[in-house]
Amino acid sequence: MPNNPTTFALAGPERARLERGAGTMADQLREDIAVVEALERVGRRAWAGLAEAEQNYLRDLLGSTWMEPASIPSLPAMLAMEVEDGAALDGLDAKWEVDAKTLAGKLRAMHPADAWAIYKQARGA
């Protein structure tokens, strides 16, 4: 990979987090990228565990939905509620021929990291 230095400023909380860790900012960035890549692999496996119609339902539902990373602990329940609302308010269950209650149950049962990965996959990120 070419050496293309990038300069950016960190806010106080981000700088404090980096200073608590061992190593350089570059070391921390490499570690963070590795964590993100691992989560993406988990996400692809969790996503592959859904039926194609369920994936389409979630793409349709979440394509323009923004969730903060701070919501990760409650994301399984939040996504399940979104699925239920999508059926009740927008008829997405009929559109995609998906049992919304079953899909909502799958989401509620997920680990928060899996739910975040599903959310990211649905958004195409």
Short structural summary:
By secondary structure, the protein is mainly α. The protein has 7 helices and no strands. The chain has one domain (12-122).
How would you describe this protein?
By secondary structure, the protein is mostly helical. 68% of the residues lie in helices and 0% in strands. The two termini are 23 Å apart. The mean pLDDT is 90.
Percent range for β-strand residues? under 5%
Helical fraction equals: 55-70%
Basic shape: elongated
Low-confidence stretches: none
Number of helices: 7
Total number of beta strands: 0
Radius of gyration over alpha carbons? 18 Å
Task: Report the end-to-end length measured between terminal Cα atoms.
Answer: 23 Å
Question: Topology of this protein?
Answer:
Blueprint: H1 12-20, H2 25-48, H3 52-62, H4 75-90, H5 92-96, H6 100-108, H7 112-122
Helix pairs in contact: 2-7, 4-6
Name a few traits of the molecule:
mainly alpha; 0% strand; 125 residues; 7 helices
